[in-house]
């Protein structure tokens, strides 16, 4: 085993339950390590943070040259998450407008009450059950219902877009032998079908009064601020998928971590005021997103090595979150950890735009679950994980709950 095979080992499904020893190996191997395919893994906190703020790295898969001709690869128009400024800034700004003006409560804060009600409804449905799958019974339906309400997507169509979402997410994983440009035909077809579905829903609201985001997009009165049909499709797909995929992982990883640390679970039960800090610590300790891929637009020095232009970088955010050069006792879960500037939502211009919603959902969800986890135990540890190495989280999290005496 060598450092040049680290990405292959990290993405091997056998290591999905616990990739953290491999992340430690990455940091010890040089913090920026060349792989057999010519890409580089970067695992140090400070190196990742600097690169996320460096304009010489690109998120746009079209900036990657083909192996044969040194020309941009033929890939579809990416969502703004995979674009660079100034186009990224323009589309991100337009996509965020329906959420409300910057630095104001806006649409998301207004949903706190609804999120709390949905949470209580889900928990009420679990009250008399002794066998529960946290993913299917709670962590998945909560954020899906929330994002459906925000966008204006009928909840009854959830089985349809779940199939599309699974295909898109599977095609966007980081692998040792394929990049994340979503060249997989099934992923491209799913993205096209979901985009068409969402644009059709939006068009049904054109000229009508509705408080959902699809209506806000198509009824924008200022022509300069309107999304094109293609931009609307990509933006709506991104909002729908990103609006629930990472939150499912955040809530599920949260429950898994708390049940593995009963002392901290009891601490949070006795002192709910620690919960906001616990959510931040979960974002550091077991983040929903483990890696991001970038392309160098120029030669860049990383950790003392000059990495040439056009090289693919895999920024291992979850490794940076466990870097002992940044965090004291990084492998310890501490809900009261001070100065917790983690990389759970990334950083720089691509800082997760859904972070406020994810934090609210996780805070409300875990706050409601914690009092009920005192008699719960993991039915399987480790649980079965999703295949995706980038969006890492359990596919199922079965727990056993003892009925109250």
Characterise the protein shown here.
It is a single chain. This protein is an alpha+beta fold and 405 residues long. It has one domain: Cytochrome P450 (Cytochrome p450), CATH 1.10.630.10. It has 17 helices and 10 strands. The protein has helices at 6-11, 20-29, 45-52, 87-96, 106-110, 112-126, 134-139, 141-151, 158-171, 185-204, 213-218, 229-242, 245-260, 262-270, 275-285, 317-320, 355-369; strands spanning 32-34, 40-42, 57-58, 131-133, 292-296, 300-302, 305-307, 312-315, 376-378, 398-401. Strands 1-2-8-5-3 form a 5-stranded mixed beta sheet, with helices on both faces. A hairpin with a 5-residue loop joins strand 1 and strand 2. The longest helix is centred in the middle third of the chain and has 20 residues, at 185-204. It is globular, with a radius of gyration of 21 Å.
Terminal residue distance: 52 Å
Instruction: Give, in order, the helices and strands.
Output: HHEEHEHHHEHHHHHHHHHEEEEHHEE
CATH top level label: Mainly Alpha
The CATH architecture category equals: Orthogonal Bundle
Name the shape in a single word: globular
Low-confidence stretches: 67-74, 178-182
Number of strands: 10
Radius of gyration: 21 Å
The number of helical elements comes to 17
Helix content: 40-55%
Strand order, main sheet: write it out.
Answer: 1-2-8-5-3
Report the CATH superfamily.
Cytochrome P450
Number of discrete domains: 1
CATH topology: Cytochrome p450
Largest sheet: 5 strands, mixed
Give the class from helix and strand content and strand pairing. Answer: alpha+beta
Mean of all residue-level pLDDT scores: 89
């Amino acid at each position: 085993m060598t450092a040049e095979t680290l990405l292959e080992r990290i993405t091997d499904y056998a290591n999905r339950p616990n990739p953290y020893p491999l992340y430690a190996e990455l940091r010890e191997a040089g913090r920026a390590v060349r792989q057999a395919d010519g890409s580089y893994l970067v695992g140090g906190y400070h190196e990742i943070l600097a690169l996320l703020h460096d304009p010489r790295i690109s998120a746009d898969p079209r900036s990657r040259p083909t192996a044969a001709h040194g020309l941009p690869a033929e890939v579809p128009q990416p969502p703004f998450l995979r674009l660079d400024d100034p186009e990224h800034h323009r589309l991100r700004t337009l996509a965020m407008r329906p959420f409300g003006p910057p630095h104001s409560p806006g649409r998301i804060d207004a949903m706190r009450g609804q999120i709390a009600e949905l949470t209580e409804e889900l928990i009420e449905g679990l009250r008399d059950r002794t066998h529960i799958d946290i993913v299917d019974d709670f962590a998945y339906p909560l954020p899906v219902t929330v994002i459906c309400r925000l966008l204006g997507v009928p909840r009854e169509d959830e089985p349809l877009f779940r199939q599309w979402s699974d295909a898109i997410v599977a095609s966007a994983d980081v692998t040792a032998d394929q990049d994340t440009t979503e060249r997989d035909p099934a992923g491209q077809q799913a993205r096209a079908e979901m985009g068409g579905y969402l644009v059709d829903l939006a068009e049904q609201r054109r000229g009508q009064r509705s408080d959902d985001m699809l209506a806000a997009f198509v009824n924008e009165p200022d022509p300069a601020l309107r999304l094109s049909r293609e931009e609307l499709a990509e933006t709506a797909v991104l909002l729908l998928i990103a609006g629930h995929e990472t939150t499912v992982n955040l809530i599920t990883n949260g429950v898994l971590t708390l049940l593995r640390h009963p002392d901290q679970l009891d601490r949070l039960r006795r002192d709910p005021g620690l919960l906001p800090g616990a959510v931040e610590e979960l974002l550091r300790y077991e983040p929903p997103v483990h890696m991001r891929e970038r392309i160098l637009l120029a030669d860049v020095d990383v950790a003392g090595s000059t990495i040439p232009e056009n090289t693919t970088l895999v920024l291992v955010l979850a490794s940076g979150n466990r870097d002992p050069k940044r965090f004291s006792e990084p492998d310890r879960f501490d809900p009261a950890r001070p100065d917790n500037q983690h990389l759970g939502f990334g950083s720089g211009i691509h800082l997760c735009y859904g972070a406020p919603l994810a934090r609210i959902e996780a805070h409300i969800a875990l706050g409601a679950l914690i009092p009920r986890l005192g008699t719960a135990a993991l039915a399987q540890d480790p649980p079965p994980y999703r295949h995706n190495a980038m969006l890492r989280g359990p596919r199922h999290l079965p727990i056993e709950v003892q009925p109250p005496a």
